[in-house]
Amino acid sequence: MTSDSPPDGGTVEVPSWEEVARSHGRFIYTVAYRLTGNHDEAQDLVQEVLLRVRRGLASYRPGSMEAWLSRITTNAFLDEVRRKKRRPLEVVPDLPERLTGTDQEPLDVLDTSRLPEHIQEALKALPIEFRSAVVLCDVVGLNYQEIAESLDVPVGTVRSRIHRGRAQLRVMLG
Amino acid sequence: MTTLPPPDSFELLSGYLDGELSPAEVSQVRDLLERSPEHRAELTRVEQARTWVRELPPVDPPEGFIESVIATADRPVAEPKKRKWGMLNLVATAAVWVVVLGFVNMNRSNDVSPDAASLAQTHTEASAGFGGLLGSLGAGRPQQQAAPLVDLGEPYWAPVSLPGGLGLREVQINNDLVGLVYCNDSQIVMLYEEPGQLDPNAIAGAQPTSVGGEDAWLLETGTSRVVIVQRDDIVYAVVGPLDGELVAAVAAELPAPPSPSLGDRLGAAGRGLLDAFGLG
């Protein structure tokens, strides 16, 4: 462990990057897999994230390590998407439908379960902006303000993306 | 006649589930849920999707993967070979080494995050390798037919001379990264240009400072100094000796990129210089 001096003058232990990698590797990998949707890309992303952690650990200030890591992971993911242009950042599409007209009653819906792989496939099919917001909210557990800071968008945009992402997931998963 | 709820009122529902609404918005949602079957149904549906994602299990990386990343990252990337170098070969090799080590991540995105420590190390080793050769080789003497700027192709440019009697000696181009090496009689300064936006959080160990009244980032080692600045859409890293104010002077006086008309006028001179550097 190395020590770091926070603004209040106290001494707080900051882990080495190897310790971060070992203790939070599973967390980073989970976020990476939920964002990318496949293991090969998740591994590439985790590698990139850990390199960024190694370079940036000196700038880390004691706080939520997972929030910091998820921010790095999301930014690395979005950077890679932009770089490869494998899938242009979609203009947020209109919802295909407003989810009206289903024959199911609310209680029937609540009883519905889905396999994790089906949910992951649906996540992967979301537009990247929606997927990132939903993953940061529902997988990582960040609040809207933290997500807004991670994605560099207003909180209102976060709220809209999360809702529309969830709504589209619900449509895709039937 | 029924008044339809505003279209974005549905988007309040996830915020309501997540406890992210203001008291006024919570009242608005409760009112909508009370009188709108569509909102009640949508709330149920997005709550279901929210639950599905939240219940997804953690995903384990492949066995040994994290350790392999740690081992790979800890492995030295390159060791400079100990041999006698010709001056330009040394400079060229140093510049390439910086491309490999210092800016290994710069081409991966528009976020530019120079590895300032590696840049400083490269400069230190290149300077040590030169020893006292610079003066005897006339490194700082101005180029014949020098133009104030060399147009390397949009968006790059290279000042032919810099403060402190520094003259352009070497140009290295690697994808989006341009590395320029300047010398005077006793010192080496390296200038790197990369299009994109500087990500200060990623500059490990660098401290915020001010150069010429503009925000900059500074890293100093035992012998070298790195100043990183953003000008328009290009990130510049100036790497030079720790002693004196040469690096700060260069960073503060980086001339503005040429206008298109100036670029046109410099085109011929630039091509001539590139030919001289073997890049034409």
Structure annotation, total helices of chain A: 8
Q: What best-fitting shape of chain A do the alpha-carbon axes yield?
A: globular
Radius of gyration of chain A: 18 Å
End-to-end Cα distance of chain B, whole Å, is 76 Å
Query: Approximately how much beta-strand content do the residues of chain B carry?
Result: 15-25%
Could you name the key traits of this structure?
heterodimer; A: 174 residues; mainly alpha; two-stranded antiparallel sheet; 8 helices; 3% strand; globular; B: 280 residues; alpha+beta; eight-stranded antiparallel beta sheet; two-stranded parallel sheet; 24% strand; disordered C terminus
In words, what does this structure look like?
The complex is a heterodimer of chains A (174) and B (280). With 174 residues, chain A is mainly α. Chain A contains eight helices and two strands; from the N terminus they run E-E-H-H-H-H-H-H-H-H. In chain A, strand 1 and strand 2 (12-14) form a beta hairpin. In chain A, helix 6 (128-140) packs across helix 8 (155-173) and helix 7 packs across helix 8. Chain B has 280 residues and is α+β, with helices and mostly antiparallel strands. Chain B has helices at residues 12-17, 23-35, 37-54, 65-74, 87-101, 116-130, 133-136, 246-252, 260-276; strands at residues 111-112, 149-153, 156-159, 161-162, 166-174, 177-183, 188-195, 197-198, 207-211, 214-220, 224-231, 234-241. An eight-stranded antiparallel beta sheet of chain B has the order 4-5-6-7-12-11-10-9. In chain B, strands 1-8 form a two-stranded parallel sheet. In chain B, strands 2-3 form a two-stranded antiparallel sheet. In chain B, strand 5 and strand 6 (177-183) form a beta hairpin. The interface between A and B is large, with 61 and 49 residues.
